[in-house]
Amino acid sequence: MFKKGLQFTHPTLAAIRRLQPKIGLCLLATAMLNLPGIASADTPEPNEEPRKQLAEFLNATDAKYAKPMQTVDLRETQDPLNLIYSVELEKARPSTLVVDEISEKQITRGNRFEPKKQPKPNDSTGTRNKIDAELLALLKDKGEAHRDRVMISFASQVRVPRFPEPAANEPRKGKANQQAMERTQALIRDLQEQRSKFYNPRYEMLKKYEIEVLQEFWLIDAMLVDMPLGALKALAKRPDTVFFGLNQTQYLPPAPDGNSNNDVQDGRAIIRSDPYFNLGLNGGYIGLLDTGVRDTHEVFSSPDNLDFLRDCIDGGANCRTGAITTTDIWPHGTSSAAIISGGSGVSAPHRGVTDITLDSFRVYPARGAGGSTRSASVNAFQQALAVLDRVIVGELQLGGDHWSDVSLAADAAFDAGAVVVSANGNVSNGPANIASPGNAHRGIGTGRTDLGSNVPSNDQIDGPTGDGRIKPDVQAPSVTETARGSGDSSYRTFSGTSGATPYAAGAAALLRNWLRRTSFSIDPGQVYAQLILSGQLTGPMDNNNGAGMLGLPVNGRASWGKTTVSKGDVIRIPVNVNGNNNVVVDAALWWPEGHEGPVLGNNAMIAGMFDNFHSDIDLRIIDPNGTLRGVSQNVNSVFERARATGTIQTGQWFIEIRGFDTWASNRPVYWATHVSRTR
User: Fold this and answer.
1) Domains and CATH numbers, the chain
2) Which GO terms describe its molecular function (predicted)?
């Protein structure tokens, strides 16, 4: 239920479209002239084909928005812009929703800000190595004549659309969800047809290098091939290739190291998830990419929240054809699944964070046969989307930067409407830098803080990412006792970033359902803003803490929404603080960006030009007296978090969003605030 705020007027569709983000035509046209296959850098005027491609791009990336408070079932549109949602919270239970608008009076444009100290850039897409370290080592060891299976990723020329939102209160076999899956299959067929126009001409080119294509993908522009390693360097020089990775990696799960015994309920208490669990937020589906699940374990009872058990290693491209193995032979995935969605029938202290249906996708071969498989991981992302999973959990720590295949899959899953939460990776058994897909632009990377400690573990891989962004995004508890997949009643301490990621994923799933129920908000970016808001770091964010340990808002007043910001804009969002016992005002921002046209869609012809096009957006908290009480102004980040403490007087506060420097006009940004109360 919601009611209109005192200043709320129901915007018309025309008003909604007027507020849509538009990309600068001149910026795109200028950039496209320098792209291979579009026009040479010295071409005086673009020919007709680039003009046509530019027009198609602008049309394809013109985001479609829902009407305010439009029901979410089967929806394929983004959340509306410039609305302010507000509720009072008591044990996470929201009061009647109040909806207001961000008016033009609250926006000033053309402002000039004090210069910032710019960090030294640590990467350029023009100099990065496209070939993963594992593959380079194999080339050096085996020589150019050696053949192996390699994943090749290309600059994408196809936009991934928003997939239909499932009906959360119906079973998968219900009429609405069957319609959602049928519509999803139609979208997949369309993506396959679009990508075939680029895949088919490539066969002749690859044949010249004695390369055999084994599989194509619809979610990203990538091919699994069997190739002589001697062709790598020549292919890497091509402007349309972005990443080469050995398909069967040696990157093991972000595995536990085994410390003390603490139950899952202790981890749940830290992230404050139980009040949300108690609201019955159990709709929708979560997809887990891991080693498989021992579904006969006693923790999966009362209720048994497991549904699909898919094998993306031996089960073919659809993860369910062939010699299926779903049991957890490592074991690893059983522990992840138990923390996310384990039942309470046998042991309430071991009950999971959520009561949400979970699908398992096995992406690791038999123990001793190597680490995660790249093609299986991308197939798992594809199949998770196909079966309506809208929270996808990556218990992976692959090598490769933000351009690698699995990171691209995570970004594309975001575009399709999925929240993606992954491990940051472990120093002890992970890659040298932030693991993929934890380094993805449009996903959450999870750090590890062990129970009993106030600081992140030294075994957590710290940021930044290859392009300088802060990672991890948040911290979650690790080293808790949960189910072990070696027996039906076996338990163990699950640590590493593996042990933390399920807590962050469970929190994300609960927040998504809470937003969906409260304001019909389903954009994954809004969930990310809520996760950043839930971070409890009191000082500046950094590449060790991110936004800090998760602690979901429970009591007080919450507000959230989505707007757009351009360079020089100042947007002041009013936040009414009333009542007694107010102790803290928190605010957070998160905005989507990345290669392939951040949030504008994965449009191939301009892929690559956006990687270093970063928006610097700042956040300030201002009290009723006009005093600046909190500020967050990182340079290399896609999120901000600020906190005001001390005396929290009643009256109208403001959350101020500043467009310090945006690479194009009207960049989308998600914001969230919470005024905490002691009760």
Assistant:
1) 2-116+533-677 (2.60.120.380), 133-246 (no CATH), 264-521 (3.40.50.200)
2) serine-type endopeptidase activity
